[in-house]
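Example S7 (structure tokens).
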């Protein structure tokens, strides 16, 4: 066999083998759904829920390694950082900070994560959506400057 073919065959074997490593893709129960006006929720649902809720729509490439690993990592980290399905379980001051943080992240263009956008064109945060999120965030209780995260 030519050397190049051997390498290709090796790569193929690896690609098949890594599929055997299981990745749990779960949607745990919703325990404390965020209470926000319907138009706010609609934007969050459309653009953020895949990583920040227990209602993730796992896409087809979430079934194929190594894409599945990357997705699993993002959803796990996203949920751990802020979970709209368990929002009510956060202490009130944290909810207040997160409410500002949501707008901060969208205003700066940091969220949704950059690679998510081209894969989910329908999740685009439009100017109208931004206005909705900003108004909601501004209407929340004031939080100390620089404390919009955590
Ligand atoms: C593709 C997955 C994904 C999507 C979609 C997504 N996020 Fe995130 N988000 C993450 C991950 C992972 C983190 C934690 C790591 C980080 O900060 O980059 C995070 C962190 C955050 C944080 C905390 C930042 C901090 O520094 O404390 C906020 C707030 C946030 N996201 C808001 C949003 C909002 C609002 C949307 C929708 C407009 C959104 N995210 C969409 C994955 C995502």
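Recovered sequence:
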């Amino acid at each position: 066999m030519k050397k190049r073919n051997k390498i290709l065959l090796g790569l193929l074997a690896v690609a098949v083998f890594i599929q055997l490593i299981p990745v749990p893709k779960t949607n745990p129960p919703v325990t404390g759904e965020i209470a926000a006006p319907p138009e706010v929720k609609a934007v969050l649902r459309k653009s953020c829920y895949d990583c920040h809720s227990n209602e993730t729509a796992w896409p087809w490439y979430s079934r194929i390694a190594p894409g599945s690993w990357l997705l699993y990592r993002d959803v796990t980290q996203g949920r751990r950082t802020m979970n709209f399905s368990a929002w009510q379980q956060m202490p009130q001051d944290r909810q207040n900070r997160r409410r500002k943080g949501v707008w901060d992240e969208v205003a700066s263009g940091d969220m949704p994560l950059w690679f998510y956008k081209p894969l989910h064109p329908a999740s685009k945060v439009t100017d109208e959506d931004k206005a909705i999120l900003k108004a909601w965030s501004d209407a929340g209780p004031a939080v100390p400057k620089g404390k919009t995260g955590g």
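Notes on this example. The mean pLDDT is 93.
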